[in-house]
Amino acid sequence: MMTMVIFHSNARLPAVLGNLRSRFRHLLLVVQQANKRRSIYRTTVCELNSLTNRDLADLGISRSHIRRLALEASQKEVVK
Length: 80
Fold this sequence. Notes:
mainly alpha
């Protein structure tokens, strides 16, 4: 039976782990931003839907535009 000796260097391990940490932090940031956008979207839709047709008309908003306005508000908030 022949024994194989495998030499494996761990010299690059700190760089690889640093890269993984960086990617994980970025992924975490992306998820947090998505959650914040979703929360703003839901809140805006709920608040606008709770208004009467008269209140919406006074604001110049049609009920059919609520989702679009909420989406714009959520995207604008995270960009700041």
